[in-house]
Amino acid sequence: MVESSSSGFSIVMFPWFALGHMTPFLHLANKLAENGNKITLLLPKKAQNQLEHFNLHPDLISFHPLTVPHVDGLPAGAETASDIPLFLNNLLVVAMDLTRDQVEAVINATKPKLVFFDAAYWVPEIAKPLGIKSIKYNVLCAASVAIALVPARNVQQDKPITEAELAVLPAGYPSTTVVLRGHELRSLLFISYPFGERTSFYERITTAMKECDVIAVRTCHEVEGKFCDYIGSQYNKPVLLTGPVLPEPSKTPLEERWARWLSGFQPGTVVYCAFGSQHVMEKDQFQELLLGFELTGLPFLIALKPPNGATTVEEAFPEGFEERTKGRGVVCGEWVQQVSILEHPAVGCFVNHCGFGSMWESLMSDCQIVLVPHLGDQILNTRLMAEELKVAVEVEREENGWFSKESLYEAIISVMDKDSEVGNTVRTNHLSCKEKLLSPAFMSGYIDRFTENMKQLVK
């Protein structure tokens, strides 16, 4: 039940222009609105329609549309990371930085007590002169921040970081299992690449954490406590945890076509696969993935974007694949209701990229978890899940970063085989972890503590 707005205060939120950032900011806004806080969420115009259905408190949470300036090199109308390939993210950051005047105007007009931000490192420059406190809200796992984005990493400004330099753990790093190897090091080299004008990704994020008043992380002590403590010691400031801030259960029933199709299979037998809203596979690797699912002999539902060079998923199918898997496998190139699918009793395994949202959704499900990470933070999330918590298995990769149909098959069968020692181990650990996450007052306790810390911050 939402309290009177007099018990709360005004907050402005300004997330990076990617759905994987805007959505968790909105989920947090929903939780804070339950305590009477009034939130203004700054978003690109295009993102409003995509997120409106997640706004559970429109009387307290208002969307303020930003006009995203065009930057040479970006496709016309590009406003979010979903509109562009990954290699153009740098230009989208330039466009985001060009909204600074609009952001400043909103902050001046609303006079909030707090401003939440992530990639816009200049927000504290606006907030501090006005006596407004700023919170750098990290929606990535704490392990990835602790390994790549701390002063002890000491990435030099005048040259790109090398694989050898990246392989060295930062001083005092609190884990020997959440580490990088082989091709994974190359996936994290982007931290020293340009991310906006005259700044690298590393400089941008570390500056944000140095200049903010408080660092917040979307995680919990039970999963990542030692990494959060390390971040706090590195930046010498409070690190507040919001908990995973998962969305409320959807009141929209699962689409009839999926509900009907899934109901044709025995409980816990269907393997569901999705790699997020932005990742686009190469055609050869896409086909290898499909052939790996075919090898399992299990029913499967795959929701992926068409691979590079294809306009539909169907045109990229391996020869004869559709005929051979008819009746037990579906490949869909559209968005699907992921959480509702994971809740269906027929689904017993979730193959995903271990983006932070999918990571929490998989932990909260009853499914076995198989991980195929693609980018730096996903790889570190995977290390956390597969090697620290031991609740999942990772598909083995070749040195070039690709996986074979055989390695995918082996990973899926290792968790789906009832007699598998690996499968039983991750199932037991997953159940234990889920029970903690679902224990009475676990989620609400984090939000209550976070809210109390916010009140102390603005006193």
How would you sum up this structure, described in words?
- With 459 residues, this protein is an alpha/beta fold.
- 41% of the residues lie in helices and 13% in strands.
- It has 19 helices and 13 strands.
- The protein has helices at residues 19-33, 45-51, 89-97, 100-110, 123-127, 142-148, 163-167, 183-187, 201-211, 221-235, 256-262, 283-296, 321-325, 338-343, 356-364, 376-388, 405-416, 421-437, 442-457; strands spanning 10-14, 38-44, 61-66, 114-117, 133-138, 214-217, 239-241, 270-274, 300-303, 329-332, 347-352, 368-371, 393-394.
- The strands form two sheets. The protein has a seven-stranded parallel β-sheet, with helices on both faces. Strands 10-9-8-11-12-13 form a six-stranded parallel β-sheet, with helices on both faces.
- β8 (270-274), α12 and β9 (300-303) form a beta-alpha-beta unit.
- The chain is globular and about 65 Å long.
- This is Glycosyltransferase.
CA-atom Rg in angstroms: 22 Å
Biggest sheet: strands side by side, in what order? Answer: 3-2-1-4-5-6-7
Uncertain segments: 1-6
Number of strands: 13
Helix content: 40-55%
The helix/strand class is alpha/beta
Major sheet summary line: 7 strands, parallel
Number of helices: 19
Choose one word for the global shape: globular
Mean pLDDT over the residues: 91
Oligomer description: single chain
Strand content: 5-15%
Distance between the termini: 25 Å
Protein name: Glycosyltransferase
